[in-house]
Amino acid sequence: MVQIPVSEIAAMDLRQEIQSAEITDWEAYTFREYNEEGVENQVRGEILYSSVLDRAGIVYGGDAVWTDCSSPEDAIHRFFVDELRN
Q: What is the enclosing helix (H) or strand (E) of 27?
């Protein structure tokens, strides 16, 4: 996972949230998934996280999903083990 400037978020679902919400403390990250052999998946994921809300939006090859979480790492974990909290 790599932190990026919020302005570099490409996913429209996340960009709309940035523009419509009154929150200004967003943190943005990109991530990639690797298989058991260490081969990188071609899909780039994006996370938009707010420490004020303890909430993150995750886009990984589709529409954004949102979860309550304690950190961006927690958000990724919840996403991949299907334990999203709404």
A: strand 27-34
What global pTM score does this model have? 0.85
Q: Are 78 and 65 in contact (CB under 8 A)?
A: no
The single-letter DSSP state of residue 19 is H
Distance (Å, whole) CA 26 – CA 29: 10
Residue 46 tokens, joined: 């994006």
Q: What distance in Å separates the CA atoms of residue 73 and residue 41, rounded to the nearest whole number?
A: 18
**Which of 65, 67, 58, 64 is CA-nearest to residue 85?**
67
* Confidence bin at 40 (pLDDT 50/70/90): low
